[in-house]
Specification:
The protein is built from 4 helices and 8 strands. The chain is α+β, with helices and mostly antiparallel strands. It has a 4-stranded mixed β-sheet with strand order 4-1-8-7. It has a 4-stranded antiparallel β-sheet with strand order 3-2-5-6. A hairpin with a 6-residue loop joins strand 7 and strand 8. Helix 3 crosses helix 4. The longest helix is centred in the first third of the chain and has 18 residues, at 2-19. The chain starts with a helix and ends in a 5-residue tail after the last strand.
């Protein structure tokens, strides 16, 4: 009976890893000492359904309280370089604003870099996690 449980566990694990795609997201994690605002400015002829579903006008604005997380869902799939590049094509800029600092990623290269550098996952890169902090100098 102990061997049967191991076989069932292995079959279940293999099935999970090979048969279903994970849900992929972009998460903005506020680790700063205040509320923040994240704004994704979209290109005018945007064809990215997931972005448009979350947009109000030509942008997506997230107000994130201290020690909170907000995310944008992108359905089933994983973040590979091609998918991140397609997402970047739909963006004009990414703005991250704390009470003291406003950072704007304007170029496709800069946006692609911040998204690629923050993609996370063990087997599949299913999340992009962007942590917003304030460096004390």
């Amino acid at each position: 009976m102990h061997i049967g449980l191991k076989v069932v566990s292995i079959v279940f694990l293999v099935n999970v890893l090979t048969s279903c795609d994970p849900v992929h997201n972009i998460e903005f994690i506020n680790k700063s000492n205040s509320n923040i605002k994240v704004k994704l400015n979209l290109v005018s002829k945007n064809e990215n359904y997931d972005l448009m579903q979350n947009a109000f006008g030509d942008s997506i604005v997230l107000h994130i309280k201290k020690d909170r997380i907000k995310h944008i869902d992108f359905g089933i799939g994983v973040w590979d370089e091609k998918e991140i590049m397609e997402l970047t094509k739909s963006l004009k800029s990414i703005e991250i604003e704390t009470k003291d600092i406003k950072t704007i990623y304007k170029s496709k290269n800069a946006m692609n870099g911040v998204l690629n550098n923050n993609s996370k996952g063990i087997i599949f890169k299913k999340n992009i996690e962007i942590e917003i902090t304030i460096a004390i100098q």
